Amino acid sequence: MRDQEKDRSAPRTPLRLSLGALSGVLAGCAALAVAELAAAGVRPQAGPVVAVGGAAIDRTPAAVKDWAIRHFGTDDKLVLRLGILAVLALLAVALGMLATRHRRLGAAGVLSFGLIGALAATGRPDSVGPTDALPSVAGALAGALLLYTLTGSLRPTPVLPEPDSRPDPGTESGPEPEPDPHPEASQGWDRRGFVFKATTAAAASAAVGLAGRSLSGVRGRDAALSRERIALPRPGSPARPVPARAGLRVDGVSPFTTPNRDFYRVDTALVVPKVDATRWRLRVHGAGVRRPATYSFDDLLRRELIERDITLTCVSNEVGGPYVGNARWTGVRLADLLTECGVRPPSTGGPADQLVARSVDGMTLGTPVEEVLDGRDAMLALGMNGEPLPFAHGFPVRMVVPGLYGYVSACKWIEDIELTTFAAYDSYWVKRGWAKRAPIKTGSRIDTPKPFARPATGTVMVAGVAWAQHRGIDRVEVRVDDGPWQEAHLAAEDTRDTWRQWSFPWQAAKGGHTLTVRATDRTGRVQTEQRARTIPDGASGWHSVVVTVE
């Protein structure tokens, strides 16, 4: 009988804490599942993980952001999301263990994290209002209720005494009952109830999470369907054919045109926006806009389209880095659109010297108006390498301005253009210490041989790419160790807005060697040897690789 009572007693401390930790994890999963379902009804960007992650990115110092891109590349956002989930899991465990002793306090802790998520969602630049707080609030309420319920099953509950079979003391005398030496045995905990509740909660969370993903997918499918139905018209101003000799037949060198799947992606969007092209609108307004206008995607399709090969470069690209690529873009001349709205460049008396482009995810980019209107092929791009823009690269519409780093020129998922001044407004990255104006610096990179390669003696082809968008490349030189600079062979130039491939046949002698490259642009400016960080206006310096010839 005593063994049965012990079996029903409250779980001992280690077991109780373990079950409390499990309760916390289940409560956390339930909170995220309910929040995701609610976000599907509001908008995916309002989900707590996305909102908190976005807030973290907004508050990340530029140096840390550069470190993340340097070490994790385009996976930096995946690493951030996994980090957030790991932290949430640890906090859920801690709150669950706390709730085994203080149920209300543990539940209050879950609610407090819901408040943090709600504040993060409503405080984002792309917030649409108080409704963005709903996913975090709903998730927190569900998680708090579940944690309170599960840990309640771990608390000792009275066990009803068995019927007393002893004679009535009023009719028959006997010795007084001895005190129970194990008072805790008179308390029990609901093992079956806990297992049932925990199992039900896990299954329900999985079902709710799948439902949320399914509903979110509906929105994504609508956007995908709108993209599939787009047939880009033949451009009125097509790109000229790429010269046959623009691409060198050298193994290891970057292809002249970067495939869409390989084109770099650097942005702050934890969730790639899925915008339905049929609902997309672009508003043009601000200082000096005499005729404000709003355009639909079909409005742009009906205009004359231009097609151009343009190389883009990210300001976060380190010397020799991968964040540069060349593509054929199809779109509408941005200068024509602005001129129709009455915009004039500052050089002719226009009051605005900055064009602020806003994305659907709240990102802002500031572009010099003078450069947009100086005759270069600045465009609102609708297509990339012969197809509608991929979602990851800005579908349905993005900006492309040759010669400027992406953070001041290449707004993806654009929905608003405001004309203003640099004195009146600082865009997203300028507020974080980056330069307001950012022309791309002359750069070059060795693609082959790779660092620490071990080529054989004899002729080794050294090759790579060089760029100086909107100025063009005139010369590339290679140096072996501390020897003299030797001119490399340049592939044919497509346009001054694209990179150029180059090659150099090196007679390699046995031993360790350092290969260095530098470029000269069409203005006669030689790529500087002086090393500079990416902050505030792009990296500089010569790219070198060390190899061992065997």
Task: Looking at this protein, list some descriptive labels.
alpha+beta, 550 residues, disordered N terminus, single chain, 11 helices, 5-stranded antiparallel beta sheet
Describe the structure.
This protein is 32% helix and 21% strand. The protein is built from 11 helices and 20 strands. A 5-stranded mixed β-sheet has the order 4-3-12-7-8. Strands 5, 6, 9, 10 and 11 form a 5-stranded antiparallel β-sheet that branches. A hairpin with a 5-residue loop joins strand 15 (473-480) and strand 16 (486-487). The chain is globular, with a radius of gyration of 32 Å. It starts with a helix and ends with a strand. Mean pLDDT is 88; it is low at 1-8, 170-174 and 180-186.
| Overall form | globular
**Radius of gyration, taken over Cα atoms and rounded to an integer in Å:** 32 Å
Look at the helices and sheets and give the structural class.
alpha+beta
Q: What can be said about the biggest beta sheet?
A: 5 strands, mixed
Strand order, biggest sheet? 4-3-12-7-8
Q: Could you provide a short overview of the structure?
A:
With 550 residues, this protein is an alpha+beta fold. The chain is 32% helix and 21% strand. The strands form five sheets. The chain has a five-stranded mixed β-sheet with strand order 4-3-12-7-8. Strands 5, 6, 9, 10 and 11 form a five-stranded antiparallel β-sheet that branches. Strands 13-14-18-17 form a four-stranded antiparallel β-sheet, with no helix packed on it.
